[in-house]
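ARCHIVE CARD
Drawer: 12
Card no.: 0347
Subject: one protein chain, sequence and derived structure
Cross-reference: see card 0346
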Amino acid sequence: MARDRKAARRRTRALALCLVTLGVGGTAFAGAPDSAARLPKGHDVSSHQKDVDWQQARARGARFVYIKATESTNYRNPHFGRQYKGARDAGILRGAYHFALPDKSSGSAQAAYFVRNGGAWSADGWTLPPALDIEYNPYDRKDTCYGMTKAGLVGWIREFSDEVRRLTGRRPVIYTTAHWWNACTGGSGAFAANHALWVARYHSADAGALPVGWSYWTIWQYANRGSLPGDQNLFNGSARQLKRFATGS
């Protein structure tokens, strides 16, 4: 997922090397998966993309987008408002995501900050559920799990989810990789029943093995570059189901 703080940019090369070693990142998959022809296409952006040509994205097939809103409790994407409105004006379903730094503050504190700064949700048919980006530590590649125990991370995620649910009425989508989830949460299956999965897996013609607990992915991030700005994604359903996903049906 795109990270846009200066500290993260300074570590881009080191992180890429780490992810290549783990087999989960780095260079994008060479082309769109076969399933791209029949599933709704989407993407995700952050301040890296800044001024997105949303009409062009729509013309190239974008039907949904996630936009980075916040990170921890001290960063808000300065372009979020313009990006969020631009996507809607172009007829693209849009939602907000939060990049978690669970070693910095509590799950409830980060959830509240997220909702106050773009992570809210309404059943208007255009707003995707809030999303939690929980993955590799971009600020210390040797500390993948943020120095936390498996139980501690599970508790943090549960706290974040409960607060988002209390404030918005919806559980967040969880963005992660199978490797990170299984290694850092101990393969917790506690969230699969009521959290949609947004799985990241590159270099593959399919989404591959899923994090423990999930038998189905809702969104698959399959490449970090392509025809749409930012990372490339697919929704696992029809255009009608995507619309229902937005409304909370």
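Annotation on reverse: Confidence is low (pLDDT under 50) at residues 7-30. The domain at 6-247 is CATH 3.20.20.80 (TIM Barrel).
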